[in-house]
Amino acid sequence: MTASYLRSVTSINNVRCIDAGALNLTWRELSKMLVNEKFDLIAIANEFGTVLAFKRFIEYARRLSPESKLITFGRLSYQIPKFFERYNLDAIVQSGDFEAGVATYVEWLNGKRKDTPGVSVNLKGKWTQPELGIFLEAEDWAFPDIKDIPYEAYDKLYFDDTKKFCGIPERRELVILIARGCPINCHFCEIPQQQGLRERRRPISAVIDYIETCFKQAPFEYVSMYAPTFTLDRLWVEDFCQRLIERGNCFPWKCVTTIFHLDRELISLMARSGCVRISIGLETLASNSQKTLPRIKHTKDTKFDELATWCAKAGIELNCFIILGLPGQTLDNAKYTIEKVRSKGARCRPTIYTPYEKLSSDMDEETVMAYDRQFFLQKLSPLEEAEFYKLAFGEELNPTRVMSKIPSKLPLQQV
C-alpha cells in the first residue's frame, strides 16, 4: 500500500517493494540488491520482532549503497522515535500515515516542501522535531499492487493453523485496508496512537471494484477486511453487505470487531453476504481483569453466550482474541475465559499483554524486542509464568475448519 501510494508521487520514477522476511532472502541476496540497484532512497519498515536485524541492515546499506538516503517507518518508530536516532539514518517517520511520511520526505529532498510533518530529519547529526504527521483521508489511500506481494510465501505461513497466524489455512487471502483509526482507545493497543481516534473508511464502491479486479487477476479465495473495528460504522457495513448480496457474487470474507458493535440482525446480514469468520477483541471475561478495559469491553458471560449462538446459527466461525497477563488477571481468570470460549465451539487466539507505555528510547535492542507480545514482562512466579506460557503457546484444541466453506482455486500442493 505504501509502495502504491509512492508511485503516485510525481517526483518518484520507480518504486520496488520487497518483503525480505516472507521471501526468506539471505544477506548475500540483499547485498547484491544493494550494490546493483543503486536506490536513491531506501524506506525500511520497523517492527518489534525485527529490531535485532535492523542495525545490521543499516550497516549493509551504508557500506554497499552509500549514496542511498535511508528512512524508516513502522509501529516501533511511532512508539519510541528517538530510539532510532542511534542508527545511521537520514529520517524517521514518527506520526501520521506511513506512506504520507515517506512521501513528505521525498518531496522535501526534491525541494518541493520546506517542512516535514511527522518526519524527523537528520541534519548533520542533529535531529529535527517535526509537527504532527499527515493523516490522509480514505479517498486518498492507494490500493496495493498485488504484484508487490509474495502470496505464495504467505500461503505457507498460514498453512498450519496451530501457528496462529491471521490467515485461513489452505486458502489464498486478499487483504484490504478498509479503515484506519479507532475511538475505543484500548490502552494496550497501538492503533489509536498510530492511526488516530477518528475512524477513516474507504468508499464501498472502491472496495468492491478492487476486490473484483484482484479476483480476476489472481486466484484469491477469500478477503480479509482489515479495520480496527469493522462494524463500527453500521450503516457502511449494512450498505456493503446489501451491495454484495444484490450483485450475487458473495465472495467469502472475514473481519475483526467488538461484541458491542454486533447484534443478531447484523450478523445474519453479514453471513448472507459471504462472511465466514468474525474475530472479536474479547480480551477477558473475568470482571476483576476488565477494570482496565474500555467500558464497552466489559463483557458478561450471558452476552458472550448470546453472540456465540448468533454466529453458530448464521454459520459464521467466531474467533476470540484473548489477552493473557492483563493487570489484575489471575491464572484462573485466564483459564476460565479460554475454557468458556472453547465450550461454545469458538476459536481462541491468545496474545500476551504488553505494557507499551513502559517502552523507552534509551533501551537496548534486546529489551525492546521483548515487547513483541511473546514474553510476559510483569513479575510472575516461575510456576505461574510456566502455566501462562502453556496457555499462550499450548496446543490448539479447536483448530479451524472454516476453509471448508471457502471454495478452493489452488491445488493443495501449490500451498
Automatic annotation (TrEMBL):
Keywords associated with the record: Iron, Iron-sulfur, Metal-binding, S-adenosyl-L-methionine
Residues of the Radical SAM core domain: 168-384
Top-level lineage group: Bacteria
GO terms for MF: catalytic activity; iron-sulfur cluster binding; metal ion binding
Cofactor: [4Fe-4S] cluster
Protein name: Radical SAM NikJ-like protein
Gene3D superfamilies: tm_1862 like domain (3.80.30.20)
A Pfam family assignment: Radical_SAM
Organism from which the protein derives: Prochloron didemni P3-Solomon
GO cellular component: cytosol
